[in-house]
Amino acid sequence: MGEPVARREDPRLLSGQGRFLDDLGHGALAVAFVRSPHAHAKVVDIDVTGALDVDGLVAIYTYDDLAGPLAEPLPQLIPHPTLTHSRTPYALARDEVNHVGEAVVMVVAADRYLAEDACDRIRVDYDVLPPVVGIEAARAASRLVHDDVPGNIAATMVQENGDAAAAIGVAPHVLELDFAVERSASTPLEGRGVYARWDAADASLRVYSSTQASTSVRAALAAKLGLPPNRVEVVAPDVGGGFGVKIVHPWPEEVLVSWAAITLDREVKWVEDRREHFIASAHERGQAHRVRVGFDDDGRLHGLEVTFWHDNGAYTPYGIVVPIVTATQLLGPYKPGGYRVEFQSLYTNTVQVTPYRGAGRPQGCFVMERVMDAIAAELGLDRADVRERNFIRPDEMPYDHGLIFQDGRPLIYDSGDYPAGLQKLKKLVGWDEFESYRAQARAEGRRVGIGIACYVEGTGVGPYEGGWVKVETDGSVLVATGLTTQGQGHQTAFAQVAADILGVPLERVTVITGDTRRFGYAVGTFASRAMVMSGNAIAAAARTVREKALRIAGESLEADPRDLEIVGGVVQVRGVPTASIPLSTVAVLSNPLRYAFDAESARATQFAMPADPDKPPVADGDSPGLEATGFYSPPRATFANGMHAAVVETDPETAEIRILRYCVVHDCGTLVNPRIVEGQVHGGVAQGVGGALYERMAYDSDGQLLNASFMDFLMPYSTEVPTIETDHLETPSPLNPLGIKGAGEAGVIPGMAVLASAISDAEGFTVTRMPISPSELFHLRRSHEEGTSR
Amino acid sequence: MTEGHQVALTVNGVPRAAHVPARRLLSDFLRHDLGLTGTHVGCEHGVCGACTVLVDGRPVRSCLLFAVSVDGASVTTVEGCCEPDGSLGPVQQAFWDCHGLQCGFCTPGFVTTITAYLEENPEPTEDEAREAIAGNLCRCTGYQNIVASVLRAADLRRGVGA
Amino acid sequence: MKPSPFVYHRPTTLDQALEILAEVGADGKVLAGGQSLIPLMSMRLAAPAHLVDINHVDGLDRVETERDGVRVGATARHAAVERNPAAFAAVPLLRQALVHVAHPTIRNRGTTVGSLAHADPSGEMTAVLALLGGTVTLAGRGSERTVGAADFFQGPLESAVRPDEVAVEAFFPAPDGRTGSAWAEVSRRHGDYAVCGVGALVTLDDDLRVTASVVGLISVGPTPVVVDVSDALAGQPHDTADVVAAGALVRAAVDPEPDIHATAEYRRHLAGALTERALRDAARAAGASVDGGDA
User: Fold this and answer.
1) CA-CA 20 to 30 A from C218: which of A58, A84, A706, C264?
2) Domain range for residue C122?
3) Does residue C23 belong to any structural domain of this protein?
């Protein structure tokens, strides 16, 4: 642990031996969908006759073919008392469609080409209804997305601590500010996919899905298909990125493809194409905020009132986690004085909104950090100083904000040293020397600016994860955990944890994730929780295995277990390496079998103690084998933090924006594999840059997604992402034995905030909505020159 | 309907053939008709680069080619970037050394692109390395370590720092 | 996203290709590079019943530099034109613009003549052809005609090529005298379609004063826009010529459309700003050249 070990999974992936969803199931039937071309419409008639003579057609299904639980809406995964008007889709549209892309008809054919041919020939008659698009239209509610949801309001929620209104009322300074963030999306390079195999003789189903939550998919499929859970297995194969979108479950496609496999008694596979991913998966980020803040002459917050509107798209299968995260994580590393936050989660006739890396934090961070800059501007103070004055101090930890977090538990920061982080960041970017750099640039006719943004991230939310560790009789170690992997290097990092505790060489440890056959209890990979949760669970299991190994070895060696150590997979008496027994042998001894099958067993007999005839071979409360299961279930999240700084240059003529430097200081506690953590930060930063300068889902007023392709939805290439300079702090988490905090989302959270800060600094006026393009910056410049404010 | 066409290619040095409809994209031909699933499909409109293979030594988007159109050509996929004994080639080794991949889905397109690039430009500067990979999307790595991988691959090819 | 079925034809001579096209008419499409056509087919925005693959027709892939310009055959890849040293020497603007066309991998397969026939208002080579006053030769069964750039580009994605014709060659004339060229472009990401792109030619006399200047723009109209800005610059020294006035002329001459990436007003602004930049660079190139047209 702690070493930047090269990843075990890489050679396979690098030589083209990955097993991603579409690499499996070569003989399977293929699925395509007829999807709604309208944002809001009644489905009047479906005429499939034109498709019936397509070569290779196997089956066509509509809602009328679904019965029982399949015909009910998909589940509400995270109910909440304030989510009074939850709405989820049907697996296939019943009588209405609520966004472009909603699935209406499922076609099964010999291959995808033929399935699409059949889809082309299916005629669906729609009664087109005027759609609701955008937050303003949703709020105005002159039209409704769902007839029975007044005001298009899915949820209204208020949280407060202290009396913000009163504090603002008597504050020396008050500002009222509006902000907005536009919608983006996870867009992993691999889309979704489902491959289902039904064994009729056994009445069992195995489903491979490109998912972040295989155990949850299993539970959902069992319920929807009326199968006992132990007859359903779900496996996440190699997954080409998730970033949140693959946490939603069950997708309509997961349910339908599995059901088709059973109904047809054939292997069936669906592989999403890029257009489908844009119009049928999930988006996130769209919010509008109104802030009132009261502060004093030093820039200290006295009271903060935030009201915001969250666009949740057409459905709310993932509840209101995203706006709850925004509402609570908006506070960042600061003491707000009195705080009141109110949000409305609103329906629109667009793709549903579920978490995308950051899960509401980027929006909250953007708002808070713009407020900090606004305070600094109002008072003529240094922006870093204003932030510093509002920081929660290390000696004030643990700090209770008096609010409820997304996990339903109190928002209490456990640890963190924000002032130290700020010092590191200022040094890294040269904060105090920037004015002379700016002067020099100005002399060259160049326009530059520097920005800063801080965030806090609640990581490792529960309720739990589990780990299983087993030492095999050949000395190899198997580790399994139920959560999943989409590139985070779990096969390596979890192996490091186990290898460290067991004292075995890393190469002997194999890790399996995301396979319900290997570990049945799990929650999933999201919310920067995998290492915190599964890392600690695996550690717990490994510790149990270690204790047992030392006990058994102690009996064999006639030594006190406390005098034993494990080095390179061999248990030995400390200081007496000749008194030793390999772990492989201990594994054999742990299982008092009648029959010996292999050389290991033969070797083990020399270490076997004569059995006590009065005691059972397997003692009460003990079990055979050198294996153990452990769970980790924390009372609440553990809080990581970080701060970013960026230097940008804006072109005075073309308004193009270039990032000259991007600096990161982050703190995620103890690092298991520093290289993997840094890689996670890099990826997050690139998504932050994307969300700040390039990525925006462009819906027109008809609810058509105008940029449903990589041509026009602009994800950054290497030329758009700057060199990222990182430094880090480690304030270990006091909440778990490994001292770990999550790092998966860290890189993306302050992206919009830091770049808005830098661009504002370069231009001399404030940027209040993101993303910003050169065209938009050009117009902002114009409006400021003309004296009109936005 | 459409007739099938016999398509014969040399893939990774081995003659391969299959009978496919004209509309079969080269990406699907490689993956499904020939079983070489190392080449990945991320967008099918030529932007992401995950499907990039070498046709007669030059990088092209296999999702923007019909298999029939390149009948007779010599194709190299990521599988063919390994050494003859199956071990990792210099570009692949460099990615491993530099943590240049996370989920691995975009990686094959980078490997083929960089393999061809280094043939022509064996000693790129860091800026050139960044430019060389500017036509391939990655959502996981933020490109930092991929740029490093290009430079490391250049070193490995020259026998430096192996 | 898979294409609809089609009948595939693979002629090995031009005559064969033209014979097939004559038969299938509007049901047919020529396949050269395919980098624009195939995505459209995969998205089923185009579904030609017949595809005539000309990649295996002999003799269509030539890049020939002659005294008065560069001749590019139908199946010559962008990359081949870009890398051709003689072509670069004769018409530097070709490479100056080509490096902005998508990414190298696309340029390995996409063809220059194909991109002209595709007539995308954001296609760099359309403005290059228009600016240079080039031509496209169209062959039909038993006929051949040469069309000038001004008549060739007829609308967005509409060129003069008839369904039964193949664009077999484009000719890019080398500019006369002491002429420098440059290309300036703003795109959202590296390699993306231009939000606005400007090619510029500046011709100088022996005293290095401007005698003529013309710019060609993409992404500001349904077809490439060519603006003669000679009047704004004539007679002025090349290093102090009033490019700002030229920019103003250009802004007045274009009528761009907005899209999700940029407003019309911003595009118009860029047309002026990029014209200034391209003219300055072209003038500098002309001034640095020893005897005519070299950068």
Assistant:
1) A706
2) 8-174
3) yes
Mutate which of C29, C108, C192 to test chain B, going by most B C-beta atoms within 10 A?
Answer: C108
Are A745 and A751 within 8 A, CB to CB? Answer: no
pLDDT over threshold 90, residue A638: yes
Strand partners of residue C66: C69
Q: Tell me which H or E stretch contains B97.
A: helix B90-98
Same domain, yes or no, for C55 and C159?
A: yes
Residue C261 has its nearest CB partner, among A654, A716, A775, at A775
What is the structure's pLDDT at A618? 85
Query: Residue A571 carries which side chain, given as an amino acid letter?
Result: V
Residue A494's closest CA among A723, A738, A249? A738
Does the residue C293 lie in any domain? no
Interface of A with C (CB under 8 A): 112-113, 116-117, 120, 273-275, 653-656, 694, 696, 698, 706-707, 709, 711-712, 714, 716-717, 719-720, 773-775, 778-779
Residues contacting residue A594 through CB under 8 Å, at least 6 positions apart:
none
The residues with which A478 forms a beta bridge, in sequence order, are A470, A510
Q: Which two tokens stand for residue A502?
A: 């067991």
Cβ pair B69:C106 closer than 8 A: no
Domain count, chain C: 2
CB nearest to C105's CB, from B25, B28, B59: B59
State pLDDT tens for residues A687-740.
Answer: 999 999 999 999 999 999 999 999 999 999 999 999 999 999 999 999 999 999
Phi (first) and psi of residue A74, to 5 degrees: -65, 155
Interface confidence: ipTM more than 0.95: yes
Is there a domain that residue C160 lies in? yes
- A188 to chain B: which residues are within 8 Å by CB? 103, 105, 139
Backbone angles phi, psi at A699, to 5 degrees: -90, 140
User: CATH number for the domain including C250?
Assistant: 3.30.390.50
C118 and C48 part of one domain: yes
Same-domain status, C122 and C207: no
CA-based nearest residue in chain B for residue A13: B104
Same domain (yes/no): C156, C237:
no
Q: Do B133 and A718 touch (CB under 8 A)?
A: yes
